[in-house]
Amino acid sequence: MLKNGTPQQLKRGATVLMNTRKLTSSGALFVALLASTPALAGESGSGLYVPGTSAFGAGVTPPPGLYVTQAFMHYDGYAAASVDGGTIDLNARKTASPFIANLTWVPEQEILNARLGLTVSVPYASYTRLRAGSNALGQNVETSGWGMGDISLKGQLGWSNENGFSHTLSTTLWLPTGRYDTGFAPNAGKNHLGVNVSWGFTKIWKDPGIELSASFGVTGEFKNSASDYRNGVGLNLDAAIGKVFDNGLTLGVAGFAYKQVSDDTGSGASLGAFKGQDFGIGPALSYSTAINGRPYSFALRHYWEFGVENRFDGHLTMASITARF
Q: Do 254 and 239 form a contact (C-beta atoms < 8 A)?
């Protein structure tokens, strides 16, 4: 998403560099829209919101246009115990690798002096591998497979000023469209609705070339009727700080904090309240350029998790490419 506004047409030379650098945050912000991918407390040791998906540009809404993003995530983590599809998995290890397509439209018309952004996110192919010693005899079991994840819809309003400060209000709705089976299964979906409300900001100090972005949110989830399990309410904080270079590169550090503030409920919550928490930190970069006159933005981040309770504990990599049409 472009920072501090963008001319209607890209020009070569310095103008191109300026505008493509402003687009740097778009790739990172669009990754934040990928909330339909496998999350990393609750059933399956996860929730619908993916901690760490918001980083550079968290408070920026792009100028009018159509934006297409292709993203990829890879997560590998371990949990001493989790409940998945109504079964308890012990010494579980999960690997999830979803491919996600995002389409974002920002119309010319403003609402409340704010830009409106509408996004649909489709995790069209997700590979999941689950290994555990989950039966009464302590035998190791394993399953894997491909499937579609849960589609999400997002609406946001964004404001900005000439001092390099931008902020957004957004709401995301997850739909239970993903592959889901009860029992020990490689589920790509959660089989229930969910809603997240977030506020994000981005502040850019032009002289030293520093960006600070953060997003604060709350996620509520509905009951999974197949397993009679309802995840508790979760709070999330995602943040990033980095150096903005004139060549379109932003390089820095990103991190997240997640805290579940209410109990898991339902007859399927066989491990009790199972409140979880999760923290992560790692390097983050984004790069913007123009290819044949069209602006593109690339983003890459890697997180190492720590301080984890009642969730999978491991590492997460995110990558994306965004084009404006």
A: yes
Dihedral sign, Cα of residue 135, residue 137, residue 138, residue 142: negative
**Alpha-carbon distances, residue 199 vs 6, 71, 144, 217, 280 (angstroms):** 23, 23, 36, 6, 20
Compute mean pLDDT per 10 residues along the chain, 325 residues long, and list them: 34 34 40 36 78 94 96 95 78 94 96 96 96 69 94 98 94 97 90 97 95 98 93 96 95 98 90 92 95 94 96 96 96
In three-state secondary structure terms, 29 is: helix
Determine the Cα–Cα distance for residues 234 and 250; give it in Å rounded to an integer: 30
Alpha carbon 298 to its chain centroid, in Å, reads 15
Question: How open is the CA angle 130-136-140, to the nearest 5 degrees?
Answer: 35
Instruction: Please give the domain boundaries of the chain with CATH numbers for all domains.
Output: 14-324 (2.40.160.40)
CB 181 within 8 A of CB 69: no
Q: Which residues does 15 contact at the CB level (< 8 Å), separation at least 6?
A: 7
What contacts 208, CB < 8 A, 6 or more positions away? none
Over its C-alpha atoms, the chain yields an Rg (Å, rounded) of 20
201 Ramachandran zone, left/alpha/beta (phi>0; psi -120 to 50): beta
Give dist(CA 296, CA 322) in Å, integer: 6
Q: Is the dihedral of CA 128, 134, 135, 141 positive or negative?
A: positive
